[in-house]
Every structure is written in structure tokens, then in C-alpha cells.
Amino acid sequence: MGQKHKWADIPAGFDTPLSYAVSARDRSVLDMVNQAVHHKQVLLAYQAVVPARQQDRPAFYEGLIRVLDATGRVIPAKDFITQIEVTETGRIIDCLALEKGLRTLINYPDLRLAINMSARSIGYSRWIRTLKKGLSDDPTIGERLILEITESSAMLVPELVTGFMKELQAKGISFALDDFGAGYTSFRFLKEFYFDILKIDGQFVRGIATDPDNQVLTAALASIGQQFDMVTVAESVEKPEDAAYLAALGIDCLQGYYFGAPTVRPPWIDSALDRATA
Asked: What range(s) does the EAL domain occupy (predicted)?
């Protein structure tokens, strides 16, 4: 059988059966995500962010959106997040994350919570309506809500981000610059952003206790945060020796699997159940 005949069923635009199979798989995942979002098959998983020098009590939690397939299993974010970021589905996911985060803050008035958003959702009418409703439902929400924007997303429209932040910070909302060091932030814009929290990307944190390169890079990134009076958070902390090194370095807060994986059953739910059945 000739090569030409073997590939006769591969549509134009695909070099090999493998490239076509990968593309078909990606389309299938995106179809699943679109369907899940349409039916609101999403939930938040919560991960603690702890003070580096007092690790027994979280400073706040991050609520991470999870999208479920038809069987209830989580669709890995890495399989779709880049593709949907530029689509309407990406905006709706931001809205659903905010809706669930605001509901959690209303239900648990002692909680402080960070929710992720894309700079592309600034000005998206449904997202803005959701936020305004949450703020009107509970006047304490502003000071307990943190909005996380990735470095790469913030740099898409830096002037728009700075204006957006200034308006919402006046309502008590804090902002975190996520994945710092992974993107290409212009230092000129960093001076103007006025982020409250700087989250150092995990690639510079993992194994830091024994990695001289990461030690130098994380120290440099942390010094930038300190210069601009931002709370520094090290992401992807997975080992006790790394946690100890980061605390000694002067990092303010730590987040990662060493302190617990993201969970859909956070500790305050069990505490509420205990009180209800006491």
C-alpha cells in the first residue's frame, strides 16, 4: 500500500495522521469544555496560602476553577486553558468562577479568597454585573476579595488594567499579579500597576533550597515586590526545606502541595457541619 493511499483519509492541512489525531482530540476536549460551561458543570477547588513564618493558619485561600466532563471527572486545565482564553467560553468561565467565589464569601464571612480572572474579562458586561451584585449583597466582600491576573494577561492591555485596578481598589478589592517571572512585564508598567500581592512563578520556587539559580532569581523577584510594597507569595512550594528557605529569604506567604492540594472540600465546610450538628 502506497504512502499516498495510506494518508488518503487525512483532511487537507494536516501533515500526518498524528497531527490530525492530536487536532481531533483537542477539538473533542474543547467541545466538552464548551458543553460543561454551558451547563455550569464547574466548581471551585480551594488551596491555602499561608504566612511564611506562621504556617499553622492560612492568610487566605485561592479558589481554582474546575471544569467537569459528563461523567463528573475534572477536565485538566492544561488541555484547554490556552485555547479558551481568547474565546467567549473563557469569559464565561471567569464569570462562573467569580459567581462561585462571591457566594463562598457571602456564606463564610471570616474568609478571604482569591479568584482568577483574565484581563480580557475587564469590561465584559456579565462579569461586571456579577461583581457589582456581589458587592451590593455584602458590604464586607470588597475587603475580602482578591482578584488574580496573570502577568501575561496583564501585559495584553496594561493601561486598561491599571484603570480597572484603581477603580476597584477604591472599593477595598485587592489585586494579585500571578505567575510573576513567567511573562514579560515591562518595569515601566510594574511601577504603575500597584498590585497588592506578587505571586512568584513556581518554576523559580521548586527545589530552591538546593538550586543556586532559583535562589538568585527568586531573591531578585522578591526584592522587586518588596520595593513596591507588595506582599510576596511563593507558588508551588512542595518540600519543607524549600518552605524554610523561602521564609528565611523574607518571602511573606507560601502556597503549594506541601501545605495541601486544592480541594473541593475545604476545612470551613467541615467546621460549619460540626457547628450545625453540635
From this structure: 26-276
